[in-house]
Amino acid sequence: MKxxxxxxxxxxxxxxxxxxxxxxxxxxxxxxxxxxFVKLIQxxxxxxxxxxxxxxxxxxxxxxxxxxxxxxxxxxEISNYFDKKGIKTYGINYGSFISFPFxxxxxxxxxxxxxxxxxxxxxxxxxxxxxxxxxxxxxxxDTSVMYEMNxxxxxxxxxxxxxxxxxxxxxxxxxxxxxxNFLKSEKILGxxxxxxxxxxxxxxxxxxxxxxxxxELILLDKGKTIYV
Length: 228
Description:
Layout: E1 2-7, E2 10-15, E3 18-22, E4 46-48, H1 54-57, H2 60-66, E5 71-75, H3 76-83, E6 89-92, E7 98-100, E8 103-109, E9 126-132, E10 135-139, E11 160-164, H4 173-183, E12 187-191, H5 203-212, E13 216-218, E14 224-227
Parallel strand pairs: 3-4, 4-5, 5-6, 10-11, 11-12, 12-13
Antiparallel strand pairs: 1-2, 1-14, 2-3, 7-8, 8-9, 9-10
């Protein structure tokens, strides 16, 4: 499984021949000062949306017009919102695993909020638990640390967890360490930090704190990739 980090919470997962874009945030992102981000994305089969906030959904329409067969997967309310715009969607909610060509996907709880910029209700925020023949991945979405995270490893061992670490609106570094313990996850990709002034962190100190707790915190530069 190939994981590419673009910035904020935006990542691309490549599983066999399928490309999954997570929470696309480019055009309104201060890290991308021009539209050269378009060159970074060559293929999209699915777009996974954790919740409706602008910094997670603002480029859905752009990419679904560019890649007309891409399918948006999110909760019922978000899927319905984009379905009304003529975008292909697959609505889910908290419940069972659902089989897709890339593996099995489960929408799981997140402690946050969810509303579109125009005030439309975005349903319950969530994350994704992804089981594939290349390993299992947890994408928490924007969230506080929750005791419900203890349930995740009961479904299978995780190769990687993608967790926010910027604080204020989500977990900070210390809370993400606690979350990693709940998840029994040894390898964490940190997201949702340093995009804006109010979610700045010391990257080296953050990696040190995870290392002291027996965990590996991976912090990738824009456009960099890891294989898990």
